[in-house]
Every structure is written in structure tokens, then in C-alpha cells.
Amino acid sequence: DIQMTQSPSSLSASVGDSVTITCRASQDINNYLAWYQQKPGKVPKLLIYAASTLESGVPSRFSGSGSGTDFTLTVSSLQAEDVATYYCQKYDSAPRTFGPGTKVDIK
Amino acid sequence: EVQMVESGGVVVQPGGSLRLSCAASGFTFDDYTMHWVRQTPGKGLEWVCLIRWDGGSTYYADSVKGRFTISRDNSKNSLYLQMNSLRSEDTAFYYCAKDSSGYDLGGFIDYWGQGTLVTVSS
Fold first, then answer.
1. What is the percent of chain A with per-residue pLDDT over 90, rounded to a whole number?
2. Beta pairing partners, A98
3. DSSP H or E segment with residue A87
4. C-alpha distance from B57 to closest chain A C-alpha (Å)
5. Could B45 and A97 be called an inter-chain contact, meaning their C-beta atoms sit closer than 8 Å?
6. Which candidate, B118, B46, B106, B51, places its Cα nearest to that of A87?
7. pLDDT digits over B1-43, tens only?
8. What DSSP assignment string belongs to chain B?
9. B107 Cβ contact list (under 8 Å, min separation 6)
């Protein structure tokens, strides 16, 4: 099975900073990669699919890139409401493995 | 509005069985693949299983294969998860989730239910 890793596992940044999270697949998954945001006590929310397509209604400060095995999620100007854990997930085939998550908070 | 409401989560003893249900509304249920995803409190997300729009194809995580069975009743807009031989490590919130596609490949999860808590403990 394909394994998904994320780095860093956590980060702390200031409001207005640009933040980048990396997701890596152990094998080529083309662009079958989604990103989810889970705020404390809430249900996960879809941010990005097909590695770089922004879900409707998601602020444009979120962006995704990558293909194959290496992917990134970037928040161009971090806001207080972006405090959350971010997960990547592959969906090329089963099992639909999630990454372990990256916890983002405000410095 | 897309909505999924899970039910059936309780405290159950190790080795026991449980059936979770998910009532879906706000979309054409039988057009879409559906998933169960779980999350141990304070931990990460774990994909559990999926079922194609017609129930003709199912996939499971290795951690639950042979113990859990996903099913659906399109006439009732409902998704189910039969959980047998439960273990302490199955303790988690269980989320019902909608796929963007009706097929078993190439679609992503686009909506999540609120979850139901299953606790496996003696």
C-alpha cells in the first residue's frame, strides 16, 4: 500500500506569514491528492482537490501544488481563523490513506 | 444542503458487535460512492472503507478487513457499517462521508457528517 507522510508535524507562525506544508506519497499518485482542514472540535473540511484545485468558497490564500509523489499546501497570509490541523489524502485507489496531519497555530 | 447524520455509537465490550447508520439528504444518494472515516479522539484521520454507488464494489482498510462490513440502502438514502469482533483500538469517532464521484476510483471526499462516537471498553 502507498504510505502518506506530512511535514512538519506542527508549526507555529505569525499572522500574515506564508506557511507551507508538505505531503509525500511513497509511490506516484498522479494528482489524486486532496487537502482537508480540521479546526478544533469540528469536522474536516475540503480545501483542495486534484492537488491544486481550490474548492468553492475556500479563501484564495490557500493554494496547492505538486504531482506524482510530492505535494504542498501553502497559506499565503496566515490568519487567526486558519488555526487547525491539515491533512492530505490520496484518492487514486484504495486504501484512501490520509497523511498524519500538520497542526498549525499562531505564534 | 448536503447533510449526513450518523447514529448508533455507544459503549460496547471488546469482542462485541455494533451497527452504525448514516442518514443522507440534500443530494441524490444513489449517484455517489460513500465512505466511513474514523478518528480516535485527539488523533489523526483513518479511512475505514468505501462502497460504490450501487453497492457493487467495496474496499476496506487492512485494520478492519474481515471484521467490518459496509452496506447501503439506496431506497432509504442510508449507509451502514456493521462492526464485529470489536477491539479497544476501534474506539473512535466514526464519520460518514460523501464522495465526489459514483465510482470506486478517482473521487475525493467532499462532505462529512458530524460523527458518532464508538467506545470499546469493558
1. 100
2. A89
3. strand A84-90
4. 11
5. no
6. B46
7. 999 999 999 999 999 999 999 999 999 999 999 999 999 998 9
8. --EEEEE---EE-TT--EEEEEEEESS-GGGS-EEEEEE-TTS-EEEEEEE-TTS--EEE-TTTTTTEEEEEEGGGTEEEEEE-S--GGG-EEEEEEEESSSSSSS--EEEE---EEEEE--
9. A91, B32, B33, B99, B100, B101
Residue B105's pLDDT is what? 84
Report the amino acid identity of residue A66: G
Residues whose CB falls within 8 Å of the CB of residue A11, separated by 6 or more in sequence, listed in order: A19, A21, A102, A103, A104, A105
> What sign has the CA pseudo-torsion A107, A10, B98, B4?
negative
Residue B20 contacts residue B86 (beta carbons within 8 Å): no
What's residue B106's pLDDT? 83
Q: B-contacting residues of A 50-89, CB under 8 Å?
A: 50, 55, 85, 87, 89
Chain segment A41-70, per-residue pLDDT in tens: 999 999 999 999 999 999 999 999 999 999
